[in-house]
Structures are given as C-alpha cells and as structure tokens.
Amino acid sequence: xxxxxxxDLTTGSLGTQILFxxxxxxxxxxxxxxxxMTDIAVVGRFSGAAALGxxxxxxxxxxxxxxxxxxxxxxxxxxxxxxxxxxxxxxxREMVHSSLILCVLVGLISLAAGQLLTRSLLEFLxxxxxxxxxxxxxxxxxxxxxxxxxxxxxxxxxxxxxGDTKRPLYYLLTAxxxxxxxxxxxxxxxxxxxxxxxxxxxxxxxxxxxxxxxFLFRSDSLYALRxxxxxxxxxxxxxxxxxxxxxxxxxxxxxxxxxxxxMGVNTFDATVVAGNAAAANADxxxxxxxxxFYTACSSFMGQNFGxxxxxxxxxxxxxxxxxxxxFGAVLGLTLVLFGRPFLSLFTGDPAVxxxxxxxxxVMGLSYAFSAFMDCSIAAxxxxxxxxxxxxxxxxGSCVFRVVWVYTIFAYFGTILSLYLLYIFSWSxxxxxxxxxxxxxxxxxxxxx
Length: 448
Hints:
The protein is an all-alpha fold. The protein has one domain. Helices cover about 85% and strands about 0% of the residues. It has 18 helices and no strands. Helix 1 runs parallel beside helix 12 (about 310-335), helix 4 (about 90-125) packs antiparallel against helix 5 (about 130-140) and helix 12 packs antiparallel against helix 15 (about 370-380). It is globular.
C-alpha cells in the first residue's frame, strides 16, 4: 500500500506555502503546454504550413471541450479541500468516489459530442477549405482521449486539494515524454501528419489517467479509491455538480465566445491564421503558469474555510493574486522581447512569424491583468460559490466579446482591434468579480 502524502494547508506561512504548493502545479502546467507545443512544432516543421494551420485551427474547439473537464476538476478540488480541512473523513471518501463517476460520465459525453459536432463547428468557424480536412481528422482522433482527460483532472483535483501537487507532475512528465517520442515516430518516421500528433496525444493522456488511478486505488489514505465504494452519494453528487458544472459551463461558454474571435481571425488570409495559431501557444504558456496560483487559491481557501480560520482565508486570496499577477507580467514582457525566437519554434516562414508577433505584443502587455478576474473567480469557488461568478464572467467576458466582434471589430476591421478585446473584457469582468467576492466573503465569514 502507498502512504498518503497530504498536507495541512491551515497552518504556516502562506507566502511560502502557496509558492511551494504552486511550483509543482506550475511546472506541471508548463509541461502540458510544452508537450502541446511539441505537437504543433513537429507537425509545422515536418508536415508544412497547411498542417500547422489545420492543427492550430482546432485550438479553440479543444479548449472548449477540455474546459468542461477542467471545470469538473475544479469542483472536485474545492469540495474535497473543504471536507479535508474540516477533517470530515466520511465526506471526503464519498466526495472522491462520487466525483470519479461524474467526471468519467462527463468525459464520455464530451467524446460523443466532439465526434458528432466536429465538422459542423469547423464550418461554423469558417475554417479555410484547405485546412478543414486536416483539422477535422485531428479533432476526431483527439476527442477519443476525453475520458482520460476527465480522469486525470479528477485525480489532479483530489491530490491538489489535500496538498499533494508533486505526484500529478510526475505522472504528467512521464506521459509527456511518451507524447514527444510518439510525435517524432508517428510524424517523421510514419509520415502520419496531423493524425500522428493526435494519436500521440491520446495515448499519453490515457497513460497519465492510468497512473493517477493506479495510485489512488493503491493508496491507504482517506481519499483512496475502492471499487466497493464506487457509487454516487446523492448530496455529494449535487454539490459537485453545483460547483463543477457552472465552472465547466463558464469555460465552455468562454470558449464559445472565443469561437467568434476565431471567426474574426479566419476572415484574414492563411498567413495571419497561421501566425495567430503559432502565437496562441503563448496564451496557454502564460495562463497555465498563472492558473497554478488559482488552484492554490481555491485549495488554501477551501481548507482554511473548512477549518474555520477566517484570517487565512482572505490572505490566501491576496497572496495568490500577487503571485499570479507578478508571474503573468514577467512572462508577458519576456514574450514581447523575445517573440520572434519563440514563434520560430513553430514555423520558418518570416511572414507567419511577423503575423504572430503582432498578437504577442498586444497579449504580452495584457496577460497579467487577467489575474484580477481569474483569481477572484477561484476565490469565490474556494468559498463554495460558483454560480454567480459564472454568470458574471459570461456577461463580462463572453457576451462582451461577441458584442465587440460585431461592433468594434466590424467597424475597424483590423487584427489589432480584434486582439484588444481581451484586455477590455478582462478589466470589466474583474471589477464585477471582485465586488461579488467581497460580498461573498463577508457573508461566508459570518457563518464561522
């Protein structure tokens, strides 16, 4: 049996604890981004610009579906942390087993929906005719890995909730190395192109899911999995859905709004589309580093709220916000300064590099400000509130972005006017999310 590696997040220096808690998450997220970049770099370098554009055109759709899995994982993380912090062992066990069942079901639904809707969504996005065949093939294969992605996010949510952020990192590193090796074999040796990178991705996803399940079934901790205990507990399932579904819907609708942005990008020539696809890799790089602190925020606030430690609840938010803003600013400015070498990793076409750099400059100066929105959302979820933050972000970011595309962008018609919508949507949403968090915090603290 494997001994537990949980940590008590309710004592000690928050500044130090949150940083060291977040570092494995950060590395894990970075590795995941780098492995995904490898897919695009390999296919772009060895299968050409058309293959690069085809895979790049699928990014928004992939994030749309994976965002649902991530939302469910966030729900698992928050609620497990609250019960773990309150030292309610039976509730932790019921939460973990109910969560696994629900996450797998959502993964299977995502798989089916992806297979049925892929072509229609690509056509809706006005994907270039020369790209749609490769993009459709890539997505149909990639969506076969949705159940594995759901399982990994479930396990990552559980382990992060109890303070173990290193183990998911080890599993992801193992799976990522396999992904790179398979990319090179399938694309260079076998000449499979976009199909090859998609196959490499899903094989590595199932490996990481298998490793995390193996650990949880072999563990002797209170959050361990047992086949005999795999059933839905009604109240726990309801709580998971109450927190996880709004988070998943938020991610899905957020990306639905981004589909309209992709439609705007697709009105330009293939060079701009390819440049945007290459530069968009930086989004995941920066967002996922910052997201490590959002997970820390939810986990620390969840455990400390469960333990009734009022002073540490608010401080967890403020420390996480400071870290996420700082890291976002440093990474963004680095990309502004070294944008061309970064983009050269994905394409050797100077025109594509220049088109991508136009995006990097705007986004690099904007990334850090998204922390005010996202960290506030994570804090509200750490307090068990998910629905209202979801509504706010749908209105402030999603609806706002669609309106922007059909007004500001439609009027100016420039790629700059399209990219500027990010910083404006983040700013107005952050104001509303912070206001709600303040209200939510006061109300929840009165219950302790």
